[in-house]
Design goal:
mainly alpha
């Protein structure tokens, strides 16, 4: 999610920028960035769905000790994502006030905004990658030597073609579709995007009516990518982005599916509704010029019974759930449902 031009949203046609820095961190280091425990720092915002994918994957795979985490303030200013949640307003590992500093050390005057997730090389302070589509796939496949014992296979080789197909549909109509609806500048543009969101959600609901997870009987990358949009749906996309044909809580299958994931270790314990709501409503001044953050919706239903286990499935396959959230990474109580 970009740190630049937020006031322009709602005044110009929305286009998702491609990741400018697409180097990969791999087991063999073929791009010059070998997988090494402690060498890299993952910079995220808990408000951003694209960054939240990486937070969930990192936790499910048990990479907390190998890949440190920096959490930016959900409210940006014109200098990009900032580390005002940390003492003295500096990231304690990178020593910088703004993520843009790591971008500038990589390339001064690069085209495009400052986005998260981003992985920074700690020794040099340089950005390595902001390729939000690739980062989580590489965490699942290239970082295997550093995975925890019992880590799930989030991108199993035998299922990749189906996972890729599902993820492409989810990305086009749901992950990115809510943004195309929310930042539309013309009525027809909005209506087409909004209609596509709900057509795809209905199709996903049908798919999930008879199976617990999107692909196979275990959690995969596809579930992570759908979850990060669903968990924000009623809180921000329904109202702020005008995706309001119905609420997630009004769709029995998708609501139960989302609650099932939320209550699975590694998903809900990474979600901060306070960060989510403040970012969308306070930063996107082009479509919410007052910056007022709504009190609702009531988020308490996330912890109610879902009964999805009746469909079978093994969340972690032959593996195990992740352990407790590290103390320094726990979400503040006001970020969780009552």
């Amino acid at each position: 999610m970009s740190g630049d031009g937020n006031s322009a949203y709602g005044h110009r046609t929305f286009t998702r920028s491609r990741s400018h820095f697409d180097d990969r961190i791999t087991a063999d280091g073929r791009d010059g960035w070998p997988v090494r425990a402690g060498r890299y720092r993952l910079v995220v915002s808990r408000a951003c769905p694209w960054a939240s994918r990486a937070v969930i994957s990192r936790r499910l795979l048990g990479l907390e000790d190998a890949l440190s985490l920096a959490v930016a303030d959900p409210v940006q200013d014109d200098r990009s994502w900032r580390f005002t949640l940390d003492p003295d307003g500096r990231d304690p590992v990178l020593g910088i006030r703004f993520l843009s500093e790591a971008y500038d050390r990589r390339e001064t005057g690069y085209p495009g905004g400052v986005s998260v997730p981003a992985i920074v090389d700690v020794p040099s302070g340089r950005l390595v990658t902001n390729d939000y589509q690739r980062i989580t796939l590489d965490l699942a496949t290239e970082w295997t030597a550093l995975h925890r014992p019992g880590a799930p296979d989030l991108y199993p080789a035998a299922r990749r073609a189906e996972i890729d197909e599902v993820m492409a549909e989810v990305y086009e109509d749901v992950n990115n579709g809510v943004y195309r609806a929310g930042f539309a500048t013309r009525q027809r543009e909005y209506e087409e995007a909004c209609a596509a969101v709900f057509r795809r959600l209905e199709a996903l609901g049908e798919r999930l009516s008879g199976q617990r997870y999107l692909v196979g009987d275990t959690l995969t990358e596809a579930d992570i990518r759908l979850f990060t949009t669903l968990v924000r749906f009623d809180a921000v996309y329904h109202g702020h982005f005008k995706c309001n044909r119905w609420k997630l809580a009004e769709h029995p299958v998708l609501w139960a599916y989302a609650r099932d994931l939320f209550q699975t270790p590694g998903f809900g314990d990474t979600v901060d509704f306070d960060h989510i709501k403040r970012h969308y409503y306070q930063v996107h001044t082009g479509i919410n010029p007052t910056g007022i953050v709504p009190l609702g919706p009531d988020l308490g239903g996330w912890l109610t019974e879902h009964h999805r286990e009746e469909l079978g499935g093994r969340p972690f396959g032959d593996g195990t759930p992740p352990g407790p959230v590290p103390p320094g990474e726990r979400v503040a109580p006001r970020g969780r449902p009552a």
